[in-house]
Automatic annotation (TrEMBL):
One of its GO terms (molecular function) is small GTPase binding. Keywords: Acetylation, Cytoplasm, Nucleus, Protein transport, Repeat, Transport. It is found in: Cytoplasm; Nucleus. HEAT repeats lie at residues 386-424. It comes from the Eukaryota. Pfam families: HEAT (PF02985), IBN_N (PF03810), TPR_IMB1 (PF25574), TPR_IPO5 (PF25780). It comes from Salinomyces thailandicus. SUPFAM superfamilies: ARM repeat (SSF48371). GO terms for biological process: protein import into nucleus. This is Importin N-terminal domain-containing protein. InterPro entries: ARM-like, ARM-type_fold, HEAT, HEAT_type_2, IMB1_TNPO1-like_TPR, Importin-beta_N, Importin_beta, TPR_IPO4/5.
Amino acid sequence: MDEQEFVSLLRALLQPDTNKVKQATSQLNKTYYSSPQSVVALVHIITSNDQPELRQLAAVEARKLVPKHWVSVSQDQKPQLRQQLLQSTIDDEAPLPRHSKARVIAAIAKVDLEDGQWQELPGMLQQAATSETVRHREVGIYIIFTLLEAMPDIFQENMSQMLQLFNQTIQDQQSVEVRINTMLALAELAMVLDTDEDTKSLKSFQNTIPHMVKILQHCIEAEDDEHAMQAFDVFNKLLSYESAFLNAHFGDLIGFFMHVAAKTEIDDDIRSQALSFLMQSARYRKLKVQSLKVGEQMTKMCIQIATELEELPSEEDEVSPARSALGLLDIMSESLPPSQVAVPLLKAIGPYVQNSDPSHRRAGILALGMCVEGAPDFIATQLKEILPLVLHLLEDQDSGVRSAALNGVARLADDLAEDMSKEHARLIPALIKNFDLALQSMRASQPDSKEHELNTHILKASCMAVDSLVEGFDQEDAAQYVNELVPRFATLFEHPDHKVQMAAVSAVGSIAAGAEEAFKPYFEKSMQSLGKFISIKESEDELELRSIALDSLGKIASAVGAEAFQQFVQPLMQSSEEGLHLDNQRLKETSYILWSTLARVYEENFEPFLPGVVKALLECLEQEETDTEVQLGAEASDLIGQEVTIAGKKIKVAGAGGQVEGVDNGDDDEDALVQELMDGADEDDDDWDDLGAVTAVAMEKEISIEVLGDVITHTKGKYLPYMQKTVEIVLPLLDHSYEGVRKSTVGTMWRAYACLWGLAEDGGMQKWQPGLPIKVKPTADLEKLGDLVMKGTLALWEEEMDRATVTEINRNLAATLKLCGPAILAPGANPGNTTPLKQITALVLMVLQKQHPCQKLDEELDDADALESESSEYDWLAIETAMEVITALTAALGPQSSELWKIFESPVVKYTSSQERFERSASIGTIGECLEGMQEGCTSFTPRLMKVLLKRLGDEDPEVKSNAAFAAGLLCLHSTDAKEVLGNYNTILQTLEPLLQKQSATPSEHEARLLDNAAGCVSRMIKKAPQNVPLEEVLPRLVDILPLKEDFRENEPVFDMIVSLYQSQNPVIQGLTERLMPVFEKIMGPPEEQLTEGTKEKVQQLVEYLRR
């Protein structure tokens, strides 16, 4: 072996010349690395060369070659090589080569120990770790760490002995390196510690946590950022392991990290790391965080940190404490109940939004915006208090505050579009005023000035706020702003900032979708302006703008209708098909969504495009996702320091397995510039596995499946030729690794079933009837598809860990049962020991009791604690939609469902006494819906339900009270327990009496609905037992509030009761005829949905009778 040439080739790898690196790599692989002697030569360089960079490079290479060649090295040479390597590692003063050598020792030990050789090494290392010489301790512990990395179970038999050692070394007074290396080793040891069986070792491990905190605290105080980052990494790892490791000290850890995050004297990167730990804690240890009751304290801390946010919004991916604090608020609002985040936040922001310092006012409104998505239900109840603050900030003298307020409006409208839209008369003028002021100020300022940049942002934010807000507008409300908004936003279509262009284009599409007919005067001009964007493709910015334009044009198509838009369909479809091949993910997804929109507009007339659309969507679903695996070879050297997109994610390339040049990552420090440049990195492929969790292809598939669902629903029978192949390709995706794909698959498969059901009914199949066995037999195709989709859904539902997917399963099953009846509950061809109905019942029960896999992400609380704890609104959705499944089962089974209610009653009733209004409202609403389905089957449950409903009729929340009135009326109507029902008539009437009065000239939605449900309740009571109701007092009040304004469903019992009283010639109702005639006129007119056809016919006959 030519050692001189070998060394020179290695030196060539350190040169910045890419061609030389490639040549040297090729020659090394071809001439030297195929021989075991290469390992001997590399060890010689490692132990004797004067150049630290070359020693490190040789160590990196040796580590890769040891698994392949060490067994073939002569047994005579091995003892000397081991000894030289150990001594050299201990003596090396340069940390990078020293750590790389340690990994070579670990690689050799892995081979040797498995072959029964080098048995003395673990003892030698433990001896070194307790040596009186600091360097020996540092190296000894570091090699132990690398051994644990390579062979996690190496010390499993000596667990208590190792923990005793680590409890000693983690308190090393002379060396922070020893203490940090011990932390790294402990993080590896935790991987194999059995927390259930070995409680003594667990306790010993837990004893190290306070010392870890002291180490991190010391590193922060000493401004030792390198070691501090390693310590943070250990804490993050432990957080991802079993909760038992951190549980005993979790409260103290949260307190410590909050202290670090809040301290402005500490380096921003360190504070951001502390906030990152808090984020992960709130997400993955939420029940523990909730039980500590630190939500309020963390919320206040986040608002204060948010005051540090820069006035000009910076790049979205830039990490800072202020941005991280807002991110933490977002996660907390989703993970914790409103009482711990949204409630204290609303109490706390008052002083901020009124502060004389603009940064405080900005922080207040931005913090509020971050909490909307996680707690929309609660925030909606507080809009009366919130909106005046928002409107005040939209008028703020400081443009940065106004910009933040616009962001707040957009966030509020994103999740509360309907609620926010009611305030359009105040909001839209304020948004227009901000837009005009920004445009005027821009024209008067220098293009590169801070003022110009801020006003550019306000223009964009104004468009985005309108875009979000108009989504919730009624057509009439949107129509009145078309002339104000469209011409203004159209002036920005040619704006030099492409983000402003995109915001304006998107907003015009939303305005069109909301205004519909009123947009037509701007239709042609908008098509001319936007049409030119559908072919641009010279840059990424242009492709992004093109995708927004496609989306906006789809909305315009929905607004103006099929006929007016006809001439533009072909060019749009051509543009969207070309967009699939322009290597821009957003454009590709927007193209798919455009097809969904056009299918909705053209329905069966979309048929000419189906061959191409279905082909493209199914091809998307058949894409391989493994081709995104990454290999960095010599060719990657010119990417160092750059960002590249891999598997749909931006990755910063430095050199080695993830290290940025010039930064010592400690435990990863062998990942120096050259590590991957030498080789195809075969052994390090696993490092990239984590990237593949959510690839761009997977997200594209999610959208494709959703679009297929839309296309199936709207093209109906025209889709039949493609149905079989679609099911064959889509159904297996219930097993996909990405939850978004699984979730959209559930939705699309049940939509396909509903589509086939609708076609069968159109073809003459009878309407379904409640109860099992099924009375209306579906077609063979329907039976087959229903069986397949139900089996797939049940298998997924049983094990699904993602809460949003479980929520989607619940929603789809509920919708299908209501639309298609009990057919899907019937046992399939091979029923086995269970039936779909039994499985659904068991799974729903698990969700109600918070025992489903998707709810058991926190291991640290026992089941009783979990059940008693409040839910965040996001978590509650899984339970609320499970209740929807119960009401749908009741509708599908009719009176038979009383058997199911025996199972569900107690879990549902438990939520009626919750502290959270949304839990009480949903559970009482579920009881009402089930009473309607059970009919007389509810009799045996009357005493308990009557007690619950009477209590909730006095609830402080109008929605809960409204649902209770609905349920109480149905219980009175259907139950045959006359003693219990009639005995409570007076109590119910006394409770409802104050409700049967108009609260105000313009009642809120909740007030109007409460009034309607109270009317429905009284009407059902009269229908059941008119003799037990004082009609002379009640009927005149009832007539005063007719016709009902909000809940048209309650018109049915009201007018059914009125007709019934006329039929029995009741004198009280006859005396009210003159007052009722105008009511009958209104109820027979628009809107059509005021009455069902059956009741309308009865009222019509009554009116004709009364006019005789």
